[in-house]
Amino acid sequence: MKNPLCLMKYLFSFWLLLLISQNAFTQKNLSWPTDLPWWKKNNLRVIQTNLPAYEAATLHPDSLLKDLKACSANTLLINAGGIMAFYPTKLPFHYTNPYMKGNMLKDVIERCHRNGIKVIVRFDFSRVHESIFKAHPDWCYISPKGERIINTDMYVVSINAPYVQDCAFKIIEEVIDNYGIDGIFLNMPGYQVNNPYEGKYHGIDQNEYDKKRFAEYSGGQALPTEENKADAVFQKYLAFKKFTVEDWSKRLHALVKSKSNQIAICTYMDKYVDIIRHESQTNSLPYWPYSASDNVGNAANSFPDHIISNSSIQQISFQSRYNAVEPEEVSIRLYENIANGSGLDISMMGDMRGYEDERNYGVIRKIYAHHKKYEPYFGKYTSTAKVAVIAPGAWPSGAPMQEYRGIQLMLREAHIPFDIVEDAQIEHLAAKIKKYGLVILPDITYLSQASVQVLKEASRQGVHLIATNHTLFDNPEALRDLFGVKIINKDHEGSGFYLTPDKKEVFKRLDKQKMLFWKFNLGLYDMSGADKTFLPILSKGRPGPPEIIGGHEPTGYFGMSIKEHPSSKAVILPINLGRLYYIHGYEQHKNILLDAIDYIYPEAAKQLFTNAPERIEVIVKEYLKNTPENHLKNTPEGLIIHLVNLTGFSGNTYFAPLPVYQLTFKVPASFKPKRVFTMVASKPVPYVWKNGYVELKLDKLEDFEGIVIEK
After folding, report:
1. For residue 96, which of 49, 129, 141, 142 has the smallest C-alpha distance?
2. What gap in Å lies between CA 298 and CA 278, rounded to an integer?
3. In this structure, are residues 438 and 463 in contact, taking their beta carbons and an 8 Å threshold?
4. Do residues 63 and 185 both lie within one domain?
5. Which residue among 168, 499, 525, 643 has its CA within the 20 to 30 Å range from the CA of 634?
6. What is the pLDDT of residue 3?
């Protein structure tokens, strides 16, 4: 330290680190309001011990507590009842875990509470033990073929039968009255038509209680036996299912809140729920490394009044519960959780002692400790995105899911910030939708009339629209009014056809290509009501050996059109653009979307400038410190740039991410920063503020970083 300049730099860095550390902890002596529900702090660090029955004999409360504390957990989620009681129940219809010794649940709760750890207890009312089934077979599911859904000695129940409609409430009340629980988690709520543990579909429940209640609801109609969306009776049945589930949830909410408003209700739905739980799982190909960002972004934007807890599921599959997913994948999930505004949540198969796959323990301890250290900088975010992507439901599946994920993938790789909004919530979030500059609808069908009206009003107020594939196919009037098109053939197999990016002033990224191959759906639409058409479709031509190929001629159809509204533009691409990119990953298909965005809404690309590689996920949020004195405030205190390094993801395997150096970022900022620093490296970051932007450079990124830009 003989060099004075080095000494000054050292002292400045030491002072800044001390200041950062002090700021992160200055609020410890302040208390949250006593009437504020505890989960509203949005600082969850959940560990779920998904206990097999036999672990009730070996779980030691003191060991469990030690493990929770070592992982910086502040919430435990543990089995209580439903399928079996993990406590000494007095109810004759509640099967008791035969391995249970003493009162394990009581001992665990008492030790957790003495150490400031909240306890949410798990109920699963989807099944009963065969002893209950034999006494009450009318309580259980029966398929149209007369089959039961059975897992060893557990039988699936019917939601409208007395076990769920009456006994479940007595079980929950028994636990609340005898144990000081902080929340209840409902696993597998609602109607069961599948045996997910064996991958078998059984059909609509034909239980007599279901038949009777549906007849009362529908005015005497018979319960349908097939899931057919074109059937008016089945549509009535879908409404019936929604009504009965919400009715049950409403009754549960009334019961729980009559006991205490400090008991949280947590499950996978949104009505009469305090914490919406989601899950990141690895159960299908191609793997989706953005699952946590997808889940949290969808739920947080669609249900802004709820707390979101997205659980990283340790197991590879239902058939492979004793093998955990890779540590690098768990790391990505957990970092994406906190970067998008959720807490941390991981689901273990059993207690942490004697676990069959302990590879993720280090990752859990590391990331949970990071969240605890910088807790004030997490959980109170506002999005800066000007683009919204509409999601086909909370749990997308099938081809619509692939289209949706493909569009997401294009935007994430291009570093275009965006929000996710569930399709069914559009009508409830009109003001939010109208604030975006661009709304993208990837294969979004079956929108309510109220939702369509929101989109029409947003378009009139200047919001641009881009729709792909089958979007609004079931609403010809909306297709005509918004996009100026009419369907000729919405399900046209596109294999062998080509698109022509002939207008190079629009398709600048495709300047060296004249023909773009196609696969999957290539809808044929009458675009005469639009103002401009693009991407002429060429016919299949002649398949065969090289000597005879060719003959690709214009079909008169186009793959894209634009309707000019007075204040906005509406683009339709009636093609499986996202699905094709999600499955095959050719950049030419991504470039179609990016060029279309540049053409109608160039501002999208001005929200973030970076040299970061495509596999660096960049999530920008406005933040307000998540501290007691700020719980009623909403004025941001700065920006955070979260960086999740996905360079280790190879498509089929998760390796350790490669370190990336000399990253640059430029983001809009209406204020001159007071200071800029990194969370992980705990270093000051040099920056420049000019022309309404903050420009900064990060020397090195490993697995994750959070760059705080403080007002």
Report:
1. 129
2. 10
3. yes
4. yes
5. 643
6. 53
Phi, psi of 353 (to 5 degrees): -85, 135
pLDDT at residue 13 in the model: 52
> In the numeric block, which tokens belong to residue 328?
């690098």
Q: What is the pLDDT of residue 466?
A: 98
**What's at 691, amino acid-wise?**
N
pLDDT in tens, 501-513: 999 999 999 999 9
Torsion angles phi and psi, residue 661, rounded to 5: -115, 155
Q: Tell me how crowded residue 475 is: count the other CB atoms within 10 A of its CB.
A: 17
Residue 49, domain member (yes or no): yes
Q: CA 426 to CA 701: how far, in whole Å?
A: 37
User: Which residue(s) pair with 363 in the sheet?
Assistant: none
Q: Do residues 572 and 686 share a domain?
A: no
Q: How far apart are CA 642 and CA 635, in angstroms?
A: 20
pTM of the predicted structure, to 2 decimals: 0.94
**Residue 214: inside a domain:** no
Task: Give phi and psi for 247, each to the nearest 5.
Answer: -65, -45
Q: Look at the block and give the residue holding tokens 């219809």.
A: 93
Query: Are 497 and 522 spatial neighbours (Cβ–Cβ below 8 Å)?
Result: yes
Is it true that the peptide bond before 554 is cis, omega within 30 degrees of 0?
A: no
Q: What crossing angle do the helices spanning 232-259 and 168-178 adopt, rounded to 10°?
A: 20
Of 369, 378, 376, residue with least CA distance to 337: 378
Same domain? For 310 and 369 the reply is: yes
Question: Which residue shows structure tokens 């207690």?
Answer: 351
585 and 460 together in one domain: yes
Do residue 422 and residue 370 come from a single domain?
no
What is the distance, to the nearest Å, from the Cα of residue 405 to the centroid of all Cα atoms in its chain? Answer: 12
Look at residues 577, 606, 635 and tell me which one is the last residue of a structural domain.
606
Number of domains forming the structure of the chain: 3
Residue ranges in the chain whose pLDDT is less than 70:
1-29
Domain boundary among 544, 573, 606: 606
Measure the CA–CA gap between 604 and 620, rounded to whole angstroms: 14
**Tokens (6 digits) for 393:** 């439901």
Classified as helix, coil or strand, 82 is coil
Strand 118-124 relative to strand 183-187, pairing: parallel
State the distance between the two ends of the chain, measured CA to CA, in whole angstroms.
Answer: 33
Q: Is the dihedral of CA 506, 508, 510, 511 positive or negative?
A: positive
Strands 438-442 and 464-468: parallel
Measured distance CA(566)–CA(558) in Å, rounded:
23
What are the Cα distances from residue 302, in Å, to 168, 265, 307, 618?
A: 29, 18, 11, 21
Kind of pairing between the strands at 704-710 and 638-645: antiparallel
pLDDT of residue 285: 84
What type of residue is 710?
E
Q: What is the largest CA-CA distance in the chain?
A: 92
